Amino acid sequence: MKPKILFWIDIEFIYFGIAKYLCKNYDCDAYAIIDVNQKAKKFFQDQNIVSFKKSWYYLDHIHIDKQEPDIEYLKLFEKKYGIRIWNLLFGERSFYNFNDFYKFDYNEMLCIIEQECKFFESVLNDTKPDFIIIKMTDWHHNQLFYELCKAMGIKILMTVPTRFGFRVIISEDISKLDSEIVNTSSDLNVNSPEELKKYLDAHNSFKQATRFTEDYRSFNWYKLKTSLRFFLNPFNSGYQIRYSNYKRSRMKIFKRQLALAIKRYFRESFINKNFINTIPNTSFVFFPMHYEPERTLSTDAPFFTNQLETIRSIAKSLPIEFKLVVKEHPVMKTLGWRKISYYKELLELPNVVLVHPSITPESLYKKCSLVITTTGTAGFEAAFYNKPTIILADVIYSELSSVHRLKSIEELPATIKTALDAKVESKDLINFIKKIEQNSFRFDTNQLATNFSSKYYYGGFLVDEKIPQDKILKFMEDNNDIFDKLANEHMKKISLFNDSKDC
Asked: If we measure between CA atoms, which residue out of 383, 365, 390, 396 comes closest to residue 424?
């Protein structure tokens, strides 16, 4: 019997490319949930590139209304699958805290997720897939789908970061390696502290992130062309069907962008005047702030999303001779930074120092005594500088002996004292690097998505576009080696799963 594979395909078309190349080389029955905007739907209705046994359009099954939600159904759904629905809703950027265009009320949120629960449950019961191939979840609805698949015991192949720049791993869980891992010998030769730092520099995730940010921020012809196209063409009512676009209009978007530019100017002026540009000459603990909204907070650490309160808690817990150095995430510039009142509250904390976002993390690792991070890569990179770490939620590098997982906020003072005395074992770090090397592969997700957006979505600033089949085929041909590699890596993972099942 052929294995059944269900693909989650979104507007970036990367997973459509994986489906094409995988189905060409692997005998399976392919299905798809297609999560694209209305104009792109026609491409999938007409395409003959991938022969799906059946496909579903997410937006056809989800409608925004003010009906009374079926609380009894949602209650039974939570109990049956162990899924915390309110946790998903609070983590959704379009429902809570980060939507400048519309505030969804209680009934609207619950009605949307009720429809999603019924839709996903129906698809999975109808298909009974052996494998799900999906990108790292970034909205509440694909996270709901992921959690439902996991609860049903369906094997999930999700492309997730490894905390090494430009390397990813296919795993069921973003915070740990699967039990089905490769245990072959490694050719990696890193033994001294200098070799470790050289390896880290070659796989620097901060450089990868900031490179993507510079591409995003730069003003270019695509943005100008997009702006003109958006404001001069008839407004597409189908654009607002998606909850993340609900109630958006040209005027609202224009006002928001203008306000964002003004806020960015004044907030950046405040940062330049009030954040220090030198590293304190004292004992300190380093806390790098997360970009928001970001799934590493809302999904991976839902009880630590208030970073201001997290910083207060850490500041209260420090030994008297230490200060807390806090660094704003440089990518926050794309969202106009945080409110000045937010920064003022941080500056009022007597043992907290705010350093300028331009200061490199490496210079802080060298001089700090300890890194505390919610779920950030900084906790992993600190080990390369022989510095221990405290993490507030599970991460893929939790197995390192120098990494201390906080179990409750009341234990923070004691955990800090323990962590400050901890030593980094180079052997642990080298073994972890080798394990990641053996089970990961080189792939720049951001770059491939950016290339697609630049060609067909005007740099990612106009994503409700019709795309002809010949353009998609041209994109796949231009990136043939990448898609072939992605498909092969997924097939290798399927083989690992099947081999472990047969044991």
From this structure: 383
One-letter identity of residue 275: F
Residue 378, Cβ neighbours under 10 Å: how many?
26
Here the tokens at position 249 are 């209009």
- What is the spatial distance between Cα 273 and Cα 233, in angstroms, rounded to a whole number? 42
Q: Which residues contact 499 (CB under 8 A, 6 or more apart)?
A: 180
DSSP code of 259?
Answer: H
Closest CA to 158 of 128, 183, 137, 180: 137
Upstream peptide bond of 3 is cis (omega within 30 degrees of 0): no
Residue 406 contacts residue 374 (beta carbons within 8 Å): no
The CA distance from 265 to 254, in Å, is: 17
What is the model's pLDDT at position 374?
97
Mean pLDDT in the chain?
89
> Strand locations in 293-427, DSSP E?
323-327, 352-355, 370-373, 389-391, 403-405
Query: Regarding beta strands 440-442 and 167-171, do their DSSP bridges make them parallel or antiparallel, or are they unpaired?
Result: antiparallel
**From the centroid of its chain, how far is CA 258?**
27
Tell how strand 352-355 and strand 323-327 pair up: parallel
Calpha distance 242→248 (Å, rounded): 10
Chain-centroid distance, C-alpha 42: 28
In the chain, % of residues over pLDDT 90:
66
DSSP secondary-structure letter at 282?
Answer: S
Give the pTM. Answer: 0.91
